[in-house]
Amino acid sequence: MADPPAFDPEPDALARPRRRVVRPAGATGRTATVVALADAGSVALGVMQGRPRVPERGGPGADRSQGHDVIPFKRPEGRRPSVDWVDQCDAFWRDRFAHLHDLLNGDRAMTDTTVRPKTHDIVIEEVLPHAPATIWRVLTTGELVGRWLMAPAGFEAAEGREFTFQTTPAGRWDGVIHCRVLEVEPERRLAFTWTGGHDDNADYGSRLETVVSFTLEPVGAETRLRLVHAGFVLPRNAATFTKMAEGWRTRPGAIGAVAAELH
User: Fold this and answer.
1) 160 & 66 share domain
2) 85 burial class (0-12, 13-18, 19+ CB within 10 angstroms)?
3) CATH code of residue 225
4) Given a cut of 70, is residue 243 above it in pLDDT?
5) Residue 226 confidence class, pLDDT cut points 50, 70, 90
6) What is the pTM assigned to this prediction?
7) What is the C-alpha to C-alpha distance for residues 238 and 74, in angstroms, rounded to an integer?
8) What is the pLDDT at residue 60?
9) Which of 113, 148, 163 delimits the end of a domain?
10) Residue 198 three-state SS
11) Helical ranges in the chain per DSSP H
């Protein structure tokens, strides 16, 4: 993100005319009040403070002072410095508001990180005494999945494929788990969404929007299986998190048992 524009003290001093500010480049380098700057340019201070005054028209003569205001009538171009300052103020605030827009809308990643609720994951890793090809078959064959987890309806290991599991209903939730395949890397990785529950359920059966993934890594003739169920929002999903953590801990052993029957 671009840095905010440099602050120019002279436009800032327009709102506080008695404040001393540094003269522009090319000037003497000394500090001066807005009143003094106005005097130097034969500018109506009322114009710079948002109270326009009409200069008197006439021939040559000395400027006429009214309090702190100087009304130029020697030359019409005496107003030019005030117009230049208004342009500086306009550019300054336009840049500031553009920077504010970037903070509120442009840096979306920072905003999302700030407001995203804290989530918890179930992570289980175990080495199974079977080749990756065998474990992959157990994970991606619908009939075999039903033997170590639940029978899926409409499952196929293809990205974008939607399928469901049916479990025990709770409250206003019908017990249906909706899934969609996100990733498929044969004999390496399978991931799918796992959503269900209902907003009216406070404990088990609360609204759940999570992702389940299986990662396979060959270890000699065996396979390291890493199972991750990610995205539990606590405290809303606390009861579901506890129940599913207990259930997932036994799944690698069940997967290994089904794999052993395939030999």
Assistant:
1) no
2) buried
3) 3.30.530.20
4) yes
5) very high
6) 0.57
7) 81
8) 47
9) 113
10) strand
11) 9-13, 34-41, 45-48, 80-101, 108-115, 132-140, 142-148, 238-249, 251-261
Domain that holds residue 26: 9-113
Quick check: is 4 in a domain? no
CA distance 44 to 78: 8
**Strands 189-196 and 176-185, bridge-based pairing:** antiparallel
Question: Which residues make beta-bridge pairs with 196?
Answer: 208
* pLDDT > 90: percent of the chain: 53
Nearest CA to 121 out of 227, 214, 255, 239 is that of 227
d(CA 163, CA 146): 13
Rounded Cα gap, residues 224 and 26, in angstroms? 73
Tokens 């974008």 correspond to what residue?
160
**Co-location of 122 and 107 in the same domain:** no
Q: Which residue has the tokens 């599913």?
A: 244
Q: Which tens digits make up the pLDDT trace of 42-90?
A: 444 444 444 444 444 444 444 555 555 544 444 555 555 555 666 677 7
Q: Is 218 a residue whose pLDDT tops 80?
A: yes
Q: How far apart are CA 85 and CA 91, in angstroms?
A: 10
Specify the number of domains making up the chain: 2
**Section 110-117 average pLDDT:** 47
**Torsion on CA atoms 165, 167, 170, 176, rounded to nearest 10:** 20
Q: Which pLDDT does position 47 carry in this prediction?
A: 43
230 pLDDT higher than 70: yes
Q: Which amino acid is at 223?
A: T
Out of 63, 93, 113, a domain closes at: 113
